[in-house]
Each structure stands twice: as C-alpha cells, then as structure tokens.
Amino acid sequence: MISRLWKSFGQRVAEHFTPQHLPERQAHQPSGMPWSTDEEVIRAIQRCPVHFTATDVFENGLLSLIFENANYANVGDATGLRGSSTAGVFYVSLHEANPNETGDQTTSEGNYTTYARVSVARSTAGWSVASGVADNDAAITFPACTAGSDTETHFGIGSDASGAGNLFIWGSLTASLAVSAGITPSFAIGALDVSID
Q1: Does pTM top 0.85 for this prediction?
Q2: Residue 45 — pLDDT band, cuts 50, 70, 90?
Q3: What angle do CA 51, 56, 195 make, to 5 degrees?
Q4: What is the DSSP letter of 156?
Q5: Is 9 exposed, middle or buried (0-12, 13-18, 19+ CB in 10 A)?
Q6: 148 backbone φψ class: left, alpha, beta (φ>0; ψ -120 to 50)
Q7: 38-56: average pLDDT
Q8: Domain-by-domain residue ranges, the chain?
Q9: DSSP annotation of 190
Q10: What is the pLDDT of residues 124-165, one digit of tens each?
Q11: How far apart are CA 81 and CA 172, in angstroms?
C-alpha cells in the first residue's frame, strides 16, 4: 500500500508540511500519522520540493557534449549521449538588457552600426571544458563600431547567425560595456565562462 510509505520516509516529508497543505485531513490526524490515504501520500510527495546538485563528472560530461560535441559515454549504456553528426557552431551575441529565459537571440540585442553575432565552433578548437566550466579557446571579437552606440550588459549563445533564433544560454557581463565609434567589443581567451551547477 502506498499509504505505508510514511513509515520509510513519510515522516521526513511531513516535516515540510503544515495543516494548510492538507487542510481537510491533516489537521485532524493523530500525531505521527499525518496521512491515512494513498491519495494524500501521493499529493504530499508531489508537493515535496526537490533540489539537486550535479557532480563535476556530470557537469563536465554535459558541457563537453554541448560545447565540444564530445560523446558522453555510459549514460544509459556504453554508447551514452552522442554528439551531433555535424557539430556546427554557436553564435555569441551581445545584449543591452537581460534577455531572460523566454527571450530569443534578438531580445534586447545590441544594434550599433556594423554589429553582428560571432560564430564559435562546437569543438575543442572553440571551447575547453574543465572543472565544471566551459570557456572560449580563442578571442571572440565583434565587429568594430563605426557609428551609433550601445551599452552591453549581457551575452547570449544561440543557434542562428541572424534573426530570432534559439537563445540557448545567456548571462550577465561582469561590467557593462559602453560601445561607440571606434570600440571593438571582445571576449579574451577564457573570458566567456559557462557553468552548470
């Protein structure tokens, strides 16, 4: 019976709940037996918050798969998660505000004259992965500004060279960058760090 689960771990789950979580029953349950039906146990388990932290091995494996197109072996079986048959590239972008999780590559994207996204190969030539961090192996240099001005606050990594492509990853710059004529935005080698935790 599912209702017996409380004996093994239900008491720990119960610590996260007060009568308002199960108002129709828990307020009237005897001490030590907060749920009496399968439905109530399932409902409490579903509401129990779940948090996880990835290990370094898992972080490195996923980052290598995503950024270096390297197979991540022994996930499911020895074959594991396979890289793409054609690795392709990512396109790095600059943004004047936070594009957020619902944004695409054009959301708040930089637009100074001559601005364009920069491609970086999904390979060990483009990225290095170590200690749960992927960073760029070569400088990522945007076209020099010839006119107009921007203040860049965020970066993005996405799928397309132009247009509203998929924005896979975004993050804040360590400091905002004012761009005007004569300024060439650039990430130095190893300056663009992406981590999973």
Answers
A1: no
A2: low
A3: 75
A4: E
A5: exposed
A6: left
A7: 69
A8: 2-47, 56-195
A9: T
A10: 999 999 999 999 999 999 999 999 999 999 999 999 999 999
A11: 30
